[in-house]
Design goal:
The protein is α/β, with parallel strands linked by helices. Strands 4-3-2-1-5-6-10-7 form an eight-stranded mixed sheet, sandwiched between helices. Strands 11-12-16-13 form a four-stranded mixed sheet. A two-stranded antiparallel ribbon has the order 8-9.
Length: 351
Amino acid sequence: MAGNSSLRAANKAKKDEFYTQLSDIENELNHYSEQLRGKVIFCNCDDPYESNFFRYFALNFNRLGLKKLIATCYDPSPIAYKQLSMFDDGQSIANKNRKAYKIEITEVPDLNNDGAVDLADVETLLKSKNNTLTLLEGNGDFRSEECVQLLKQADIVVTNPPFSLFREYVAQLVEYDKKFLIIGNQNAITYKDVFRLIKENKIWLGYGFRGNVGFFINTHYTDYAKSSQHKEGMIRVSGVMWFTNLDTTKRHEELISYKRYTPEEYPKYDNYDAIEVSKTIEIPADYDGVMGVPITFLDKYNPEQFEILGLAASAGYNAEIVGIPFLGNRDARAILFSKNVYARIFIRRKI
């Protein structure tokens, strides 16, 4: 798909900075207001002058009752100062020659005394003499020691990390036992280390993008921007999702099944003792054995209703990840009528 082609090109060039639209951030973050209250929020892949994540939390600092907001940027950024400005004049107020820096905010007062806290107050705060902006010693890489020290202060990390570093990024969050809400591609579900966390109910999907499709601001890819599948100045990415370990109401909702099992409609794989279920909506209500379902099942996954046993994918055989033994053909991928099928998650209904 076009969006996945865009991602592959970005990963190859290591130019995978995609700015998230404010509307998409609002749509997701509005579900977590109570869990954010009183917390230290860290946006560690975000130029505060250009990031809509910083913009969202700065504008909603008081409504959410945040304790602190920290944001750090990476230098050099391949698209810094080219994508968007947080302020209405269309120009970033950051020094174009500025290197990596951090901003820490503990309050957002009504500095212009107009009776409301808005973006003008945030701009004034950042321009003030007692500015909360500090240059970093290094390049702002989330793996650097100074950024790790900031991570240790944080309660919740919220951002859109580099797609090419998603495995390493998640591993760091888990290592430091942080709550998080981050954006990634659905292909990350099949990463060995990420899937292990999903299987152990240490990470799951958020509420998501409409149709699992996101439009991200990135004028660097001008060729893609000419495609009818993209919007002007934005790149269309298919299979984009929110990954989190913050609780959601939807992961406690029961998946209602209407279909009945028949061997004809639900054949078994050639190499696994599990039946093929090509669509989540078609999970049979009366089957208690192992089922192979699409990875999009995770959007409806209720750990109180189903158990995740393993994953059949092209990443190769790993007994812990595959989760169930082979029958005949020793291929980690699920094979049906001698043909490979797409990645499948093995699940079983809890009795």
